[in-house]
Fold this sequence. Notes:
By secondary structure, this protein is α+β, with helices and mostly antiparallel strands. The protein is about 25% helix and about 45% strand.
Amino acid sequence: MTVEFTNNALARMLDRGIPEAEVRSAIESPDHLGPCLEKCWHARKRIETRTLEILFTRDVAHTRILTAYWQDLSS
């Protein structure tokens, strides 16, 4: 399966200090996976003391990462 990162996702990952390997880990073996919006998926993965959230689209052979962020612990 190919994984594509949108320009937005790459920019947000850089801003937020999120490595590509952690995003791939979150979509390959998430702690939580569910639908989000129309045609999108939401993956959540606990990494050490933080939780990584990924929004993406997926079909049989292609995954497109839309954005990635660390969950806000104050909410």
